[in-house]
Each structure stands twice: as C-alpha cells, then as structure tokens.
C-alpha cells in the first residue's frame, strides 16, 4: 500500500517518547508516576512488550511505586506483545506444536513475542510475580487486572487456572454453565465491586477460549455473561468470536497436521456462516466490517458456496464505496483547513486535526480498495470443477462471473481473461481513453483547484498554482508544515 508498516511506526513513536524522557532526566527533571503511567500506556497501545520491560526496570530503579493503571498497562503490553506485527499477530492459537516451539530457548520469529514452559522468563511467571507484588504493595486490582491474568494463563494453555479466576473473582462456574446445571439465580458481582463485569470480560472470554480451540465454550460464556449482566456484546468481541471460528473451521491437511493435532477443536465449515447470520440479525444487529467479509469470502470459497460469495461482495462494495466518500469528504475538510491557516483565518491546530482525520480515513479507503480488488481476483481464481455439476459450472462460468465483474468493474483490471471448459473468456472493461483518464485521476484534486495568490496575516506570500502552495519567507519552524498527498482517489 506504499505505507510504513504499523509495527515500525509504533517503534519510532516509542523511541521518540524515550528520547523525550531521557532529555528530561538529563536536564535534572525526575520522571514522576504520572510520566511513567503515560509512557506505559503508550507502550501498551503499541503492544511492545520488550520496551515495557525496559521502562518497568527504570521505574523500579527510580524508586517509583506503580499504581493499578501501571500494573494493568504492563500486564497488557506483556500479554499482547507483537499484536501489530504481521509476523506474530496470528500466532496466539495454542496447539501442541506452538507450545513446543514457544518453550524452546531459540524460537522462530513468529513465536518470539512470548515464552512458555520452564525455560527462562515465561509469560505466566511474569504475571504471577506482578500479582504477588501488587498484593505486597497493597495495590488494588480490578476487572482489567484479572482479565490480563486470564490472558496470561491462557497463553500457556492453563484453562483450569482461567476457570478458577472466573469462579473466584467473577462468580462464574464454567463447567456448570456449559452443562446447563447452574443455579436458577446465580450469584452476581455487586455493582460497586471493582470486579463488576463489563465489555472487557466479554472480550477476554472470547479470546481466551478461542485461542485454546474451544469456540462452543466461548460462545456459551459470552452469551451467559451478556444476558446475566445486560451487557451488549461489542463489535470487538464479535470480531474475536468470528475470527477464531474462521480459524477452527479451516481444516489443516497433511502428515504434520495429524502429528501435531493441528485440527484440535475443528468446526464444520458452515458454522462460520451460521455465526455470522446470528451476529447480523436481531437481537444483535451488528454491522459487519470489511475484515469480517474477507473471512466470509475465504470461507465461502473453501466450501464452494458461490452464491454466498456474490452476496458478500455486494456487502463489501457498499462498505468500500462509503469509505471512499468519507475519505474524499475528509480530504476536502483538510484542504479547506490548510488554506484557511495559510490565509491566517484558522489555527494550525485545526489544520493538524483535519489532516489526522483525513489520513485515518484514507488508510481505511486504501485498505478497502485493495481488499475489493482481492475479492475480484478471488472470484476469478476460484474455479475448481470438482465442486460443480456441469450445468452449474456453465451458469457460473458464462453468466455469474461476467455479471459479478461488471457490477464490480470499478475494482477489476481493465482487461480480464479466465479459462473455461470451452476455451478462454476475455473481457475489456475500459477503453484506452478511459484507462488514460483513470491514470490521471490521481492529479484531479490539484487540477480542480483555482489558481490564485493570497497573502497571510503574517505577511508571507502564498502562491497557489495547480493547487500546490509555495510559501515565500516561511520561518524555519514552518518549512515542513504543509505537504500535499498524491491520493489517487478511486
């Protein structure tokens, strides 16, 4: 997509914060608890466990006693290390193979974010020491603390430990709930308690049991807690349930899969679509994201539900079109804010806010456009005769594919070729003139802007030519203030 990987952005951001903290220390300004809390929160958001270890050691050396927020952020950074890395973020599932690899002294990159077993500093040992330290210091725990405790236990497959936490802290007897032998009026955590369940507990349950290959337990417990405490199931929890259902409904094949029990907890292929229907229908009525539709498309292709693929790509088309419109509207707001700043009638802060909103919307637009193009290639590459009767094949091959491509021609290549039983089908969706016009669309924004000159309130001359401003007499501080992006809006 032509953008810096998110993990690299986060590492640069944390490095900048560390430099600021180091400069303060050099200047004789001692970091306070609030400073360490802010740094730990930033590291937690970026999911960089190693950086949190270093900061935690510095905090202890400085004699700062952490509060509950500090412990929670450190636990979260440890449990979710590597979440934003393309190498490690899909490796949280536990199987005999992953447990063996994570217990080794030297691990391959995708399993390097945390260690389990008895070798060295493991995630469960780290959690245990932190909880003991909290008790020793008299630091109160809360719902979030024990959510991280359960996550750490689940990383090593200690589901019995997770059940103990649910029973002792949240008054949930997992085995009784799963066997429908629970009390008619189960005990409730008081609303005044720091352990009163919220959306945090729902997400943790979904993740803990999903990563440990027990989707039925995840679904049953999330539904039970949601109804017991009248907590609406949030999109993040649905996303977690759908993802691990998708993973477990995708069977692994070959000798290695049998040897390492990679299909433990496997589900029927249709279970993923059934869960999706539950999510989008009453009483939940959740709007699916593009990521969810991507899983649906892959699953429908795998189980040969070609009609469903057409339904899903129509949903995705609406989401993508909406994101393009939102990005365009955010760009126009940013353009106007920048122009007003240069003319001296708006603050720099407003321009920065508008740009941040635009860049966020444009990342989503770019991702969605790329995903739609992938869907089109998925439609073209799906043809496997083993799943078709001859009549169905001709229907899909000579009617459905052309119809779908025409409906999604905005995302399709200008020239499409695919093989059929009778030969090769070739379709051209754009003329050479339209292709050339599309190639120049990236510069449309600049060409549409009126050419004019203006003077700012500070006396700086601003020349607008083809929409690109150049400022004469700009101070050194403002040299990098403005940058026009080549959008290539679709």
How would you describe this structure to a colleague?
The structure is a single chain. This protein has 490 residues and is mostly helical. It has helices at residues 6-26, 33-46, 49-61, 68-79, 96-102, 123-137, 143-155, 159-170, 174-178, 199-211, 215-228, 235-248, 255-259, 270-280, 290-302, 306-342, 348-381, 390-407, 432-439, 444-448; strands at residues 415-420, 423-428, 452-455, 461-465, 468-472. The strands form 2 sheets. It has a 3-stranded antiparallel beta sheet with strand order 3-4-5, with no helix packed on it. Strands 1-2 form a two-stranded antiparallel sheet. Helix 12 (235-248) packs antiparallel against helix 14. It is globular. The relative contact order is 0.05. The model is unreliable at 383-388 and 442-490 (pLDDT under 50).
User: Termini distance?
Assistant: 14 Å
Mean pLDDT: 82
Series of secondary-structure elements, N-terminal to C-terminal? HHHHHHHHHHHHHHHHHHEEHHEEE
Global geometry: globular
Sequence stretches where pLDDT stays below 50 over 5 or more residues: 383-388, 442-490
* Number of separate helices: 20
Q: Strand order across the biggest sheet?
A: 3-4-5
Secondary structure: helix percent: 55-70%
Short description:
The chain has helices spanning 6-26, 33-46, 49-61, 68-79, 96-102, 123-137, 143-155, 159-170, 174-178, 199-211, 215-228, 235-248, 255-259, 270-280, 290-302, 306-342, 348-381, 390-407, 432-439, 444-448, and strands spanning 415-420, 423-428, 452-455, 461-465, 468-472. The protein is mainly alpha-helical. The strands form two sheets. The protein has a three-stranded antiparallel beta sheet with strand order 3-4-5, with no helix packed on it.
